[in-house]
Amino acid sequence: MTTPSRRDLANAIRFLAIDAVQAANSGHPGMPMGMADIAEVLWNDFLSHNPADPKWFNRDRFILSNGHGSMLQYALLHLSGYDLSIDELKRFRQLHSKTPGHPENFETPGVETTTGPLGQGLANAVGMALAEKILAQRFNREGHDIVDHRTWVFLGDGCLMEGISHEVASLAGTWGLGKLVAFWDDNKISIDGNTDGWFTDDTAARFEAYGWRVIRKVNGQDPVEIKTAIETALKHGDKPTLICCRTTIGFGSPAKAGKESSHGAPLGKDEVAATRAALQWPYAEFEIPQDIYAGWRNRDHAGAQAQWQQAFDAYAAQFPAEAAELTRRVAGELPADFLAQADAYIAKLQADGQTIASRKASQMAIETFAPLLPELIGGSADLAHSNLTLWKASKSVASSDPNANYVYYGVREFGMTAISNGLNLHGGFIPFDATFLVFSDYARNAVRMSALMGAHAIHVYTHDSIGLGEDGPTHQPVEHLASLRYIPHNDVWRPCDAVESATAWKAAIARLDGPSCLVFSRQNLPHQPRDAQQVAQIERGGYVLRDSEGTPDVILLATGSEVGLATQAADQLSAEGVKVRVVSMPSTDVFDRQPLDYRESVLPNAVRKRVAIEAGVSDFWRKYVGLDGDVVGIDRFGASAPAEALFPYFGFTVERVVATVKKLG
Ligand SMILES: Cc1ncc(C[n+]2csc(CCOP(=O)(O)OP(=O)(O)O)c2C)c(N)n1
Ligand SMILES: [Mg+2]
To answer: According to DSSP H, which parts of 81-236 are helical?
Structure first.
């Protein structure tokens, strides 16, 4: 066996990517061909990980923000010995393979986060680096650096053109995330061609202005230069580093190198052959010689992990409580008594009967739950005093306080939400973020990614309807509740009083495998009477809040601020002899998951006269009210006026609800 050169090791990545894309007849060979040398140096000389234990907690995190180059990551995982066989690479982009078109954190061992929506991988990486920093502050002790790892991220021109890269790079600079290292694939090409026409920023100056250390003009095809750059990045720990790597997209392809034609299509049979000749790669499709595998697998990763484990055991002997706490948090387990304590708090709220804004009730829930949950890390996009996200023990993560637990995100909704995802995916945190409901649009794709990835992130949205009043239609959400509900695997809650608000928080915290959106009002909401069974049923997403004797003539369904209106309308209808049931439906997502018999007990099939009331678009409710029912909603933009004027103006009145019921016949 000969010792392969660095170029040979990198070429193994190139040809796995070329062959897999060719076999799938779809995919992106250009980026892996361009970044192969950088990846080879990073993975073989620096990355601290263990392919045999992809979930080892103190591993370095590697994020491929330019996720279209997924074959680069799959090649790296395969070559370095992860549980990703050559057969999986041969099945690139096929149904149920472990090699989907873009990296998915839930499909492939060693993939930390799902990437593809450009820019968000960088944001996730910033969240992960922040998680590492705060955990180190909290748990490390003199001589015991048990939390000590780096976050490495690859990104392309596309990631840098996306606005979110500005939001999160700015924060990373402010926070001094010195263990974050980004590699820019500076190839001057994106899909539409040479970027001279649309991307001429001085990226290096831009990142320096954020407070990053920038290493300029590294030849991304030269392993020596790459290695020197990484060593420089590791020397100083006070700033995040951007390494600007000049690369050639499609490197090695005689006809397509440096051209956008290599970005997102197979090279084609003849060009694959020409590239094999040009790079002197005589091996067959998907063939990797043993000496190349050996070159990729000659580091003692298990030994490195064992060494860390020893250090951790010594730490655990000296600091057993901290070690147990860190272990619990990393495993994503709630403290044993959390749910019982939450229930006790909810029962007390029911007894107290306060009429308050649900955003205030949310803050009270945070105040109560945060001391029980040190993994809770909150934040708001410059609306802390409107979203009511601060609690007494909030401490900014910009500090070196061991109990840092609050992020002042500034006005950066998208970056905030994607950072939340990174905080959770890193392990050790249940993040929540907050803004006005109307600005969930700015965050939306990161909410979608929370749901796709099964991230345990909580998105808090206050000022939930025209009820916010004078700020007017730009600030009054109308379509947002429905549109967030349409995201699969996302639980949306819109509670009607303090009791439902605390229950929504409890449910969001207990939902370990996915995100929740908690939607709260600016204005006060009346307390609703309930017995213990009804209190318990809130967690089922929908329940009978008030009932009539016998089978009801009509069912009123409502959420949030409209539940009070529904009960008032029920009073009037009852006085007129109509048998009315009021169903409070704080989470349609959760209700829809209940067994049929429960749903039938709340919304009996036989009762077809139904009116749904919600200060949002009406279409969403048609599935609950059916052809025989009706909806009191709002299907236009709002208006600027006091809330007390807006609700009657838009028809959210007892008279309108009663009239709507009567119209059903
Ligand atoms: C948010 C988002 N918008 C658009 C795309 C589609 N897209 C995928 S790659 C790409 C071009 C990216 O250019 P660059 O990062 O320079 O990648 P390269 O061609 O150099 O590999 C685009 C527009 C995407 N994946 N995500
Ligand atoms: Mg590019």
So the answer is: 86-90, 120-139, 157-161, 163-175, 203-210, 223-235
Contacts of residue 538, defined as CB under 8 A and 6 or more positions apart, other chains included, come to: 499, 500, 503, 584, 586
Backbone φ and ψ of 189, nearest 5°: -130, 135
The span from the CA of 449 to the CA of 440, in Å, is: 13
CA pair distance 495, 357, nearest whole angstrom: 10
Å from CA of 258 to ligand 1 middle:
16
If you ran DSSP here, which 8-state letter would residue 43 be given? Answer: I
Query: What is the Cα–Cα distance from 467 to 470, expressed in whole angstroms?
Result: 9
For the chain, the straight-line distance linking the first and the last C-alpha, in angstroms and rounded, comes to 87
Say how many Å lie between the CA of residue 256 and the centre of ligand 2: 14
User: How far is it, in rounded angstroms, from Cα 560 to Cα 518?
Assistant: 11
Q: Which atom of ligand 1 is nearest to the CA of 155?
A: 15
CA distance 515 to 221: 41
pTM of the model: 0.98
Ligand whose nearest atom lies closest to the CA of 414: 1
Q: Which residues are catalytic?
A: 413
> What region does 458 belong to: left with phi over 0, alpha with psi -120 to 50, or beta?
beta
CA gap 325, 602 in Å, rounded = 41
Q: Over the stretch 521-557, which tens digit does the pLDDT of each residue have? A: 999 999 999 999 999 999 999 999 999 999 999 999 9
Separation CA 115–CA 255 (nearest Å): 29
From 124, 145, 120, 137, select the one nearest 61 (Cα to Cα). 124
Query: What is the distance in A from the centroid of ligand 2 to the CA of 155?
Result: 9
Q: Return the structure tokens found at 378.
A: 């909150």
For residue 239 the two structure tokens come to 């700033």
Q: What pLDDT, on the 0 to 100 scale, is given for residue 65? A: 98
Contact between 547 and 530 under an 8 Å Cβ cutoff? The reply is no
Ligand positioned closest to the Cα atom of 121: 1
Question: CA–CA separation, 178 vs 234, rounded Å?
Answer: 9
Residue ranges lining ligand 1, Cβ < 6 Å? 30-31, 66, 68, 116-118, 156-159, 162, 185, 187, 189-191, 249, 263
Token pair of 144 as six digits? 């015991």
1, pLDDT greater than 70: no
* β 554-558/610-613 pair status: parallel
Average confidence score pLDDT of the chain = 98
For residue 186, which phi and psi values (nearest 5 degrees)? -85, 80
Long-range contacts of 626-633 (CB under 8 A, 24+ apart): 628/664, 629/664, 630/660, 630/663, 630/664, 632/562, 632/656, 632/657, 632/660
Average pLDDT over residues 591-596: 98
Pairing type for strands 543-546 and 580-584 reads antiparallel
> Dihedral (C-alpha) 441, 445, 449, 455: value to the nearest 10 degrees?
-30
Which amino acid does the sequence have at 171? Answer: L
Using only C-alpha atoms, the chain has a radius of gyration, in whole angstroms, of 28
